[in-house]
Every structure is written in C-alpha cells, then in structure tokens.
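Record type: ASSEMBLY
Status: queued
Input:
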Amino acid sequence: MQLVTEQMERYLSGGAWIRKIFEQGLELKKKYGEEAVCDFSLGNPDLPPPPVIGECLADLSCRMDKPFALGYMPNPGYPEVRAALAEHLRKEQDGAPITAGDVILTCGAAGGINVFFRTVLTPGDVVLCPSPYFVEYDFYAANHGATLTTVPTKPDTFELDIAAMEAAITPRTRVVMINSPNNPTGQIYSKETLIELSAMLTRQNAGRDRPIYLLADEPYRFLAYDGATVPSVLPLYPYSLVIGSFSKNLSLPGERVGFVVVSPDMPGREKLVAGMVFANRIMGFVNAPAVGQALLLRALGQEVDRTIYERRRKAMAGVLTRAGYSFFMPRGAFYFFPKSPIPDEVAFVERLAAERVLAVPGRGFGLPGHFRLAFCVDEAVINRSEAGFAKAMAG
Ligand code: PLP
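Status: finished
Output:
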C-alpha cells in the first residue's frame, strides 16, 4: 500500500542532514550526558524573549473574557498590526514609503515564502538562488511545482557572483531569492552588490510580460556585527519583496510570526498583495497567530540581547582560530561556515562527532567541503568545544 507520494518517499529517505545530526546528538547526549556534547547543529535561538513578551502575555490573559479575544481576523492580519509594522519597516527598509496595504502578516518567514510562491509560481518555473543556501527553499519551490536552481557564490567570501547569476537566468526564471545576513555563511551583501543585482534584473526584465521578482529573505536582519548594516532591496528594484520574521530577533520561532512586504515602487502591486492574502487563506494558514501578532505589536523595535551573540561570535572565532581552522568571519546571523580540513566534510563531521562536537555538513546547504556551526548555544559550550575541534583537526 502506498501511503505517501513518491516525492514524499524520496524526501523521507533523502539527505536530511540537520535531522540526522540532531538524532545523532540525542544518542550521544543519552550515552555521555548533556554536558559532554557540544551541539552546534541547530539554529534554534536559545535566548529568552525580551521581558516585554511576558508582560504582554500576562495582559492578554486578562482580556480573554472578551468576545473574539482570539477570533478570526482579516487574512492579512490585524489592521493595527499591519499599520504599526509598515511604520516600523519604513525606517528599517531605508526609508521606502511602505503603507499598511503593502504588508501582510504570515506564519513566520517560511509561511511568507510559501504564500508568495503560491501566488507567482506556475509548474515548471524556476527560483534562482545563490549557494550555499537554506535548503528548505528546495522544498518550498517544489510545493508549487517549481524547481530551485542554485548558482555558487564566490569562493571564500561568499559574495554574489552576479555574472554567473545572469548566465543562469532563463525564460522560466520567475524569482531570484537572496538571504542576507546569510544562513549558513554569515555574509551580508553590500549596497553596491544589490545595486548591481538590481541593474542585472532590470536588464533581464526588458521585454518580459512576467517580471522576475527579487525576494530578500531577512530573518537575521537585526543581527549584524561590527557596525555592519543590511541594505534594503525595496528602494533599488521595483519588483522586489522582503520577507521577515520575529523568530530570531524576539526569540519567538515557535509562535510563527513573520511578514511579507512588497516594494512601494512596484506597478500594480495591489494585485500581488491581494493574491498573497488569498494564498494565506487557501493554503490553510488563514492568518498569522493572533497571540503572536499581539506580542509583535507590543514588542516592535525591541529585540533579544544581541551582545550575547556578539560575545559568542568572538569566542567561536577564537576557538576555531586556535584550533587551526580557516573560516569567513560572519558579518551577521549566528552561524560559522568553516572549511573542512579534508575534502570529504561528511567524514570530517563524523570525526567531530567522535569528539562529541556536532556540526552539519556543507552539502546540507549545497556546498560540500565546509561545515556549519550554529552558535546559538551558551558561551561555556563554545569554550568547552576547543579540545574537540583541535583533536578532530589533528586527525
Ligand atoms: N529563512 C532562513 C534563511 C532561515 O534560516 C529560517 C529559519 O531558520 C527561515 C527562513 C524560517 O524562519 P521562520 O521561523 O520565520 O519561518
């Protein structure tokens, strides 16, 4: 009896690296105890949400006797949340004159990406994305009958290779998708790079009746180090959208609140927004969570204590440097993506696991020869991992 589709069979037996490492980690922790394992496999923010979240929840709990306290709402979200978010995004997105009608609330960035894809992709379309990349994009494109084509970034710096991206564009390319600050590399694309990318897309759009959209996936926007800034694509390219999330900056990943905002310069954007509102409904999300939106309204502009991530980044860089690894110093987000000292990074990740240090092989992000470390763990874990990194390096 075939209980699931062939595609799902393939997914279930495929190389889900993060899940494999996660399961291996559980085994190791059972055998040696939690303290003995340095687990850098998951990008699950460990910091508690800012105090305003608890206060808001307490206030909300006093309002539950009102009718519709947690009732259905318009599919794009509470109007006052859309308005407040639009005002917040005007500042955050380099002054783009965003209004409430340009924003919809979604079930996290993941929900937002799927809502957008549902609205613009037809089977056979292609989403183009630089690699390494967040592998869920593959599944999200496939959800809508499309495929993801990846183009390698430049070696070592993980900068966009815009000439290579242009060469990869075909008449079926419908979306170019970037993620900055990047998971897994920590790179942030400069304004000059984004201007160049926008000029390339404008050139490629000439004569098309379906524009190529530029989608910027920005769940790590708040986490830029050493004074780095994250430029906005919205004022640079009219067919651009930004997808954001409160999973990381407010440590709310389980509450599923994110948003999609379209460029105020996009001609006829009301149609695209209406499509995404409809998609939010028919994909079964209906609306982003009521509680999450109430939390967001209260906490907009606040964030977790990012100095903790800054200290961890320094500690991890110190550990890796002393142990002899070569790596790009992340400019944002909470990941390192060092080079594997041996070509087969899966074998190297196993060597690390034997030292009870858990990492994810680069091929899980479309770039073998590297491995990813998520530093959303206590600084003590980072410091404790040094001996394991050194031993694995020594072979
Ligand atoms: N995009 C990237 C690059 C991510 O790393 C993640 C989560 O780790 C997401 C999207 C999904 O975020 P959300 O929890 O907001 O759905």
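Annotation: The domain at 6-49+305-394 is CATH 3.90.1150.10 (Aspartate Aminotransferase, domain 1).
Annotation: The longest strand covers residues 173-179.
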